Amino acid sequence: MDRCTESMKHAGGDLRSATVGDLGNGQIDQAGAEFKSAWEFGISQIAAVTDAIREGLQVTARAYHETDSAIQQAFAKGHRHSGATASRGSAEASPFG
């Protein structure tokens, strides 16, 4: 995602530096300018969206990691308690403490 975002930003820079004034006649120049403007906008939108996706994926990865850690801790706590309560019967043992 980082590479995609950077690629879009680079493409936008390349497009901004391109000239359409050497295409031939006024109508072609105007059409080229409109095309360039539309693509600059589109590329900037793609860059913004890919950056937002990248950030969202980072947040999601952190949330999964935190959830996984919490589950591991809960099972570890339950395992410790189940050793102490095993003599009283398994009905009271809970993996969540």
Order of helices and strands: HH
β-strand number = 0
Helix count equals 2
Strand content bin? under 5%
Biased composition (Basic and acidic residues): 1-13
Region (Disordered): 1-21, 74-97
What does the secondary structure layout of this molecule look like, with pairings?
Layout: H1 2-17, H2 26-85
Helix pairs in contact: 1-2
In short:
The protein is mostly helical and 97 residues long. Helices cover 78% and strands 0% of the residues.
Structure characterization notes:
Residues 1-13 have a biased composition (Basic and acidic residues). Residues 1-21, 74-97 are annotated as: Disordered. The chain has 97 residues and is mostly helical. The protein has one domain (2-85). 78% of the residues lie in helices and 0% in strands. It is built from 2 helices and no strands. It has helices spanning 2-17, 26-85.
